[in-house]
Specification:
Blueprint lengths: L3 H15 L2 H6 L15 H6 L2 H13 L5 H15 L3 H14 L8 H12 L4 H13 L7 H13 L3 H13 L7 H7 L5 H17 L7 H14 L1 H13 L7 H13 L3 H12 L4 H14 L6 H12 L7 H13 L3 H13 L7 H13 L3 H13 L7 H13 L5 H8 L2 H5 L10 H7 L1
Helix pairs in contact: 1-9, 4-5, 4-6, 5-6, 6-7, 6-8, 7-8, 8-9, 9-10, 10-11, 10-12, 12-13, 13-14, 13-15, 14-15, 15-16, 16-17, 16-18, 17-18, 17-19, 18-19, 18-20, 19-20, 20-21, 21-22, 22-23, 23-24
Length: 444
């Protein structure tokens, strides 16, 4: 827990100096384009006026951390701050806090004093910068308890970055006593992206035990909370837990999070669950697989889910599963899942769960072929070759099969080879003979 005396001291400081000051004084920093020049040497920087150094320093706020403009801007601000320029010190604090970077080796203790001075005069970014220095041991001895005190100070005056740090401290017990309720409370006013990231960081720290004893049940609670914001991120966490990517492997926890992510609407997680259940001999597992595939296939970009439903239908499932599969394929096709069109076409072609209609099958395959699906082109090409569901047209059949082959569909090359044989191509000029599906069956 944070010491009572420290809290009282900080509370007094906040009351007397912090609350009204930050917004006004931080506006003193001049707005300078992010495209400020970069690349001067240390000697050249030291020879520059403070005003010019400030212009260079402004770029460090927006430049990427590995860009020359960032390094130049950071150095420029340090020089201007060392001259006693308070605007430079406050701007430097913003850069340090935003990018969480360590400052240069020289003059760090003096900078910490200057940042303290600005913090006492209402600059919340300076408070946050000092907190980070204690947190990382940057220029001062690492002290997580002091870091937590400074983070709390900045958070209480509305700094949302500090709120996330405080949430992490309470969630993991870094510098304070662990308190899950307090951690979640501090995240209430933090934006969704940073809140999600903080929840995941807390979860990993608890899972790995990097801030104290490992606690997987608590880690799962934070991961589950993150899933409310972004289920796809939690599905990635589950995959890391399953593979041990981050040094922690727990397949049971991974399975739990996969289900959580799927229930929250992540289509990849739902497909993962369906794949695990689809191979089971138990009817209930297969029914759940259909449900998860159907949910995932509503994502028009999830080809695997559409393929999964189609594959289940092709495996001749038990009759009471067929209506659910057909319904799933129809809804997926309406949602724009192109792979579902192929499974639905197969159903109409064979009369599985629907009234057989080769014309309807051809129409569905045409939609999928127009969308660029190689398998649809292959299947439709066969229909044009045989005249089933469409008028026989060898030119169209060859064109579709050639396109399927170019797209890498493995069966297209063999089919195309047979179409290009003299006996196949010459049949185009022969008198057209009306054919029906019944006649084709008898001929076979």
């Amino acid at each position: 827990m944070i010491g009572t005396s420290h809290i009282l001291l900080l509370s007094c400081l906040i009351t007397s100096t912090v609350i009204a000051a930050p917004a006004k004084q931080e506006q003193m920093v001049p707005e300078v384009p992010a495209s400020a020049p970069a690349g001067p040497s240390a000697a050249q920087l030291k020879a520059m006026s403070t005003a010019r150094l400030l212009r260079l320093g402004q770029a460090a706020l927006t430049a990427k951390i590995d860009a020359p403009a960032f390094a130049t801007g950071l150095e420029a601000l340090k020089i201007a701050s060392s001259r006693g320029d308070r605007i430079a010190t406050r701007l430097l604090a913003k850069v340090i806090a935003r990018h969480e970077v360590a400052i240069a080796s020289n003059g760090r203790s003096k900078l910490e004093s200057r940042l303290r001075y600005e913090a006492l005069r209402g600059a919340s970014s300076s408070v946050l910068a000092v907190a980070g220095m204690y947190d990382r041991g940057d220029g001062v001895p690492a002290d997580t308890k002091k870091a937590a005190e400074w983070y709390l100070w900045a958070a209480r005056v509305g700094n949302r970055r500090a709120m996330a740090h405080v949430a992490y401290a309470y969630g993991t017990g870094r510098g304070v006593e662990r308190n899950e309720e307090a951690a979640l409370k501090w995240l209430e006013d933090v934006n969704a992206g940073r809140s999600r990231m903080t929840l995941v960081e807390i979860g990993w720290a608890l899972a790995a035990g990097t801030e104290g004893p490992a606690d997987m049940p608590a880690a799962l609670r934070f991961f589950e909370r993150a899933a409310q914001i972004s289920p796809n991120v939690v599905y990635k966490v589950a995959m890391d837990l399953e593979r041990g990517t981050n040094g922690v492997q727990d397949r049971e926890a991974a399975g739990h999070l996969i289900r959580v992510a799927a229930e929250r609407g992540d289509s990849a997680a739902a497909t993962h669950l369906a794949n695990m259940l689809a191979g089971s001999d138990k009817l209930e597992d297969q029914r759940q697989a259909v449900q998860w595939y159907s949910l995932a296939a509503l994502d028009s970009e999830n080809a695997a889910a559409g393929q999964g439903l189609s594959r289940l239908l092709a495996l001749r499932p038990k009759s009471d599963l067929v209506p659910s599969i057909i319904t799933g394929l129809e809804k997926a096709a309406e949602a724009g899942n192109r792979e579902a069109l192929i499974g639905l076409a197969q159903a109409f072609s064979e009369g599985t769960g629907v009234e057989a209609s080769s014309e309807r099958a051809a129409s569905l395959l045409q939609q999928a072929a127009d969308a660029g699906i190689p398998e649809a082109k292959y299947r439709l090409g066969l229909m044009y070759k045989s005249g089933i569901g469409v008028d026989m047209d060898m030119d169209k059949a060859i064109a579709l099969m050639s396109s399927a082959q170019e797209s890498g569909f493995p069966l297209a090359a063999v089919a195309l080879s047979s179409m290009m044989e003299p006996s196949a191509t010459s049949s185009v000029s022969e008198p057209e003979v009306p054919k029906t599906e019944g006649a084709l069956t008898e001929a076979k």
